[in-house]
């Protein structure tokens, strides 16, 4: 059994590096909630929430790795992002520990992506 990795052992890239990786074929996994995702997301993003917001507070999606396995292969090159980078880091750790060898965390998340003026997909009627 492989040793469990911590957040320090996971590769984190900034949004500029993440954009280059996605242009070269990496998939983008958005781990925000469905509601956040529907307000705007990166083009061709895959959404699998890492946490759910419940009346009791944030609750981890117990089927996260299983749900990612339905849409991504363990050999896929994946960039994992959330709103600011706080959820994507533990999500990336969980994925790497589950055998997704090529998962990288996107530091700064969707907020940094938007701040840098990169293209996002928003619902019709919303300004880009």
Automatic annotation (TrEMBL):
It comes from the Eukaryota. SMART domains: RHOD. The gene is LOC103706163. GO terms for molecular function: catalytic activity. Residues 22-122 form the Rhodanese domain. It comes from Phoenix dactylifera. This is Protein HIGH ARSENIC CONTENT 1, mitochondrial-like isoform X2.
């Amino acid at each position: 059994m492989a040793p469990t990795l911590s957040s320090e052992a996971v590769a984190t890239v900034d949004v500029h590096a993440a954009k280059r990786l996605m242009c070269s074929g990496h998939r983008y996994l958005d781990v925000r909630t469905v509601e956040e995702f529907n307000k705007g997301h990166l083009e061709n993003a895959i959404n699998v929430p890492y946490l759910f917001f419940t009346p009791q507070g944030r609750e981890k999606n117990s089927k996260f790795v299983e749900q990612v396995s339905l849409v991504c292969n363990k050999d896929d090159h994946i960039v994992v992002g959330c709103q600011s980078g706080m959820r994507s880091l533990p999500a990336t750790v969980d994925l790497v520990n589950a055998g997704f060898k090529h998962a990288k965390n996107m530091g700064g998340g969707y907020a940094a992506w938007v701040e840098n003026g990169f293209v996002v997909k928003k619902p019709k009627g919303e300004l880009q």
